[in-house]
Amino acid sequence: MGAQKKGGARVSEDPVEQGHQRLQAILLADSFTTKFRPVTLERPKVLLPLVNVPMIDYTLAWLEFAGIEEVFVFCCAHSTQIIDYLDNSEWHSHPNLSVRTIESQKSISAGDALRYIYEQQAETSQIQGDFVLVSGDTVSNMPLADLIQQHRERKKKDEKAIMTMVIKKSKPSPITHQSRLGTDQLFIAVDPKTKQLLHYEEDKIDHARGSVCLDKSLLENNPSVLLYNDMQDCYIDICSPEVLSLFEDNFDYQHLRRHFVKGVLVDDIMGYKIFTHEIHSSYAARMDNFRSYDTVSKDIIQRWTFPYVPDINFSGNRPLKLGRQGIYRASDVIQSRSADVGPSTVIGYGTKIGDGDRILNSVIGNGCSIGSNVVIEGSYIWNNVVIEDGCKIRNAIVCDGVKIRAGAVLQPGVVLSFNVVVGRDFVVPAYSKVSLLQQPTKEDSDEELECVDTSSGAADLLSGLNLEMEPRASELGPDGAGYIWEVCEGAHDEEWKHSVAPIPMDKVAEIVQAMEDDDDREDESFVPTSGELRSDADSINTDMNDPCDDYGYFEKEVEGTFLRAVEEGIVVDLAILEVNSLRLSYNMESADCAGAAFFSMMKLAVDTPHSSADELYKNAVSIIAKWKRLLGFYVKKTDEQIEVIMKFEEMCQETARELGPLFAKILHYMYEIDVLQEDAILRWAEEKAGADEADRVYLQQCEAFIQWLKEASEEEDEDEDEDEVGEEEEVKKP
User: Fold this and answer.
1) What is the distance between the alpha carbons of residues 505 and 522, in angstroms, rounded to a whole number?
2) Distance of CA 258 to CAs 179, 188, 298, Å?
3) Cα–Cα dist 626/188, whole Å
4) Rounded to an integer, what distance in angstroms lies between the CA atom of residue 584 and that of residue 516?
5) Half-sphere exposure of 576 (CA within 13 A, CB side)
6) 619 by DSSP, 3-state: which?
7) Domains and CATH numbers, the chain
8) Quick count: other Cβ atoms within 10 Å of Cβ 598?
9) In the structure, what pLDDT confidence band is assigned to residue 501 with cuts at 50, 70 and 90?
């Protein structure tokens, strides 16, 4: 059963002008990349399980929910597997959504796919008008009705408006310059009034200098341009039929963005235009690599993708029961009483969990058997996997049918493809990709070449790929089976950047050190998150680009970094490194970092749901306790601690009804856990004592606490004086 539709989801057309036009979508069921190898050599990416549901089901369920009536699924690699799956799923006879497949074995890029559809269009006229273009690895809950209507109305006024791209804010990491999905930082320019896309860049940003090059002609016909480097391209497009014909006319268009979008932007002859649509509260993400697979999985578990979550029935999936701490569990799971299943974990149907197991932040598929004393953290165990006693698995992906023998260890970033066997006590090195298929002798030079059809068996592959097993000893121990693929030359950085494992601390330290050692880096070269460039101005104007307000912008960046650390479970040490990189970029002091970090913590406490002052206090205490080391790193000196108190006082003044009454209580708590020392608190009190009465509200609230600190300090001084006198008397004794 599909998710229940909201009223008014369908887009209506003027019946007098053209009658009812079916809402259609083209779904590309092939990513045309190799980023999910070796897994996708045996199964198409869109059929890989995402929190125990095939990726394509999320996309189809969303399209049906959004009012799309007909979807054309384009199949290339593993086309037989995809067609068979759809034919045997509820989509085959869905009452609200017609799903039709288009098959082409020769297409090796998105451009080829759209050209093939255009050729078929000449014979069948399948595409009746505007359509939604998405890939089958997209998860979203955004409404489409209004967006389609806006696109059509714009097209009526301007026949050159052929496409609308969906974008969403996503702050990139200041260290890796990647989004939380593991994609490269995107830089776009749009018209502030019309939202027309004017510039699109994702591979020519000079991160060392914090700059990008813009053509001067950009401002010739645009009096002002809005610049962004904190946007995520959702790869959801509303297209007019002209898009298909443009691919037919330009055979060099292969990639949707790198070739088509950039080609349209620089083509002055045809004059076609692309517009952007920013979403705010809705969710939209595409799984481009293993890191984005990990991120989207966590978002699903944390219910950002509602109603496409594990405890709700959509696309024929079997819903799980949601328990405390975000634990989803199937009704027939057999779990030992001594096993510890921690927060944000999913356990599928027919799975058995043994004695003393510890499973945290992980997804376990259907029909799995897990022995005793097994540790699984931050990992994805697919279906029918056997894990024997004493194994340790951290931040790994384990595909269907894998067997991990007793005592084996999977280090962070490991990917085990289908039916691999890891030998007893064998340690699989970090970031290893393991398969029963031998690694191709020659890697495809073009990233768009993964048109491998293994529908009829793992060995039935394209000619030129030597993937058959050789009769040699297993690389996973004497009782194991599988090959460890070598990392391609020049791709070592891609392994940790695109892995499900957290970014290694040594890599982060290397990047930060390089930033510190870069003598050519200038403070003013930092590219602001967004801003408006006017034709009569020499610089970018932003809400926070005033030199006097650098701290305001810095504070926002620290807040974004902190929230990302909370959402993604980033360790404190990595969060400190990211804040340090921001500190370098903005030339800030430790006190500035302390104030910004504390602001982020208190803002999260206020934003976390609460119904009373006591609950807000518990929120604040919980957050401060968990992130004490982050705050403590920047409050080693008295002045830095005073900055935190002043920031807290400022926040209480702004949210007097909520934080105000808790000032003394939270201040006392931070003293108890040694975040703040008595010297800092007493110095702040002394400075406040001479202020106007209106500015002494929170000092008065702390009067009893301050008095207690003073008395304790005086007693300590007296004890020290007595000790000194005693020492002097001992010296005078004969």
Assistant:
1) 26
2) 18, 13, 29
3) 37
4) 8
5) 15
6) helix
7) 24-204+221-290 (3.90.550.10), 320-438+477-486 (2.160.10.10), 549-717 (1.25.40.180)
8) 26
9) confident
Confidence band of 493 (pLDDT split at 50, 70, 90): low
User: In angstroms, rounded to a whole number, what is the distance separating the alpha carbons of residues 261 and 165?
Assistant: 10
Measured in Å, how far apart are the chain's first and last C-alpha atoms? 98
CA–CA–CA angle 675, 680, 681 (5° rounding): 90
- Starting at the edge strand found earlier in the chain, the sheet holding 363-364 runs 321-322, 327-329, 345-347, 363-364, 380-381, 397-398, 415-416, 433-435, 483-485
Q: What percent of the chain has pLDDT over 70?
A: 77
> How does pLDDT run across 5-32, given as a tens digit for each residue?
333 333 334 433 445 678 889 899 887 7
Q: Is pLDDT larger for residue 504 or for residue 583?
A: 583
Name the more confident of 68 and 440.
68
Q: Is 123 exposed, middle or buried (0-12, 13-18, 19+ CB in 10 A)?
A: exposed
The 10s digit of each residue's pLDDT in 231-271 is 888 999 999 888 888 877 776 777 778 888 888 777 777 88
pLDDT band with cut points at 50, 70 and 90 for residue 527: very low
Residue 681 has φ and ψ, to the nearest 5°, of -65, -45
- pLDDT tens per residue across span 657-678: 778 888 888 888 888 888 888 8
Would you place residue 489 in the very low, low, confident or very high pLDDT band (cuts 50, 70, 90)? low
665-669 contacts at long range (C-beta below 8 A, 24 or more positions apart): 665/617, 666/617, 666/620, 666/621, 666/624, 667/702, 667/705, 668/705, 669/621, 669/624
User: What is the per-residue burial (b if ≥16 Cβ within 10 Å, else e) of 695-706?
Assistant: eebbbebbeebb
d(CA 137, CA 119): 25
**pLDDT value at 191 more than 50:** yes
**Whole-number pLDDT of residue 120:** 77
Q: For the chain, how long is the longest CA-to-CA vector? A: 117
Residue 283 corresponds to which amino acid? Y
Rounded to 5 degrees, what angle do the CA atoms 432, 433, 439 make?
125
What confidence tier does 176 reach under pLDDT thresholds 50, 70, 90? Answer: low
Band of pLDDT at residue 469, cut at 50, 70 and 90: very low
Where are any strands of DSSP class E within 429-559? 433-435, 483-485, 530-534, 540-541
Contacts of 109 (CB under 8 A, 6+ apart): 32, 254, 255, 448
Sheet holding 273-279, edge to edge: 98-103, 70-75, 24-28, 131-135, 231-239, 161-169, 273-279
Q: Are strands 161-169 and 231-239 parallel, antiparallel or unpaired?
A: antiparallel
Count of other CB atoms within 10 angstroms of residue 273 = 20
* Positions of E strands within 267-338: 273-279, 284-286, 321-322, 327-329, 334-335
Question: How far apart (Å, rounded) are the C-alpha atoms in residues 734 and 726?
Answer: 15
For residue 122, count CB atoms less than 10 angstroms from its CB and return exposed for 0-12, middle for 13-18, buried for 19 or more. exposed
Nearest Cα residue to 267 out of 249, 255, 281, 280 = 249
- Residues 556/595, Cβ–Cβ less than 8 Å: no
What the block records as the tokens of 657 is 């009804």
β-bridge partners, 187 = 201
Q: Angle 151-153-155 (CA atoms, 0-180°, nearest 5)?
A: 70
Q: What is the CA radius of gyration of the chain?
A: 29
Question: Does position 464 have pLDDT exceeding 50, yes or no?
Answer: no
| Sign of the CA dihedral with 642 first, then 647, 650, and 652 last | negative
pLDDT tier at 329 (50, 70, 90 boundaries)?
very high
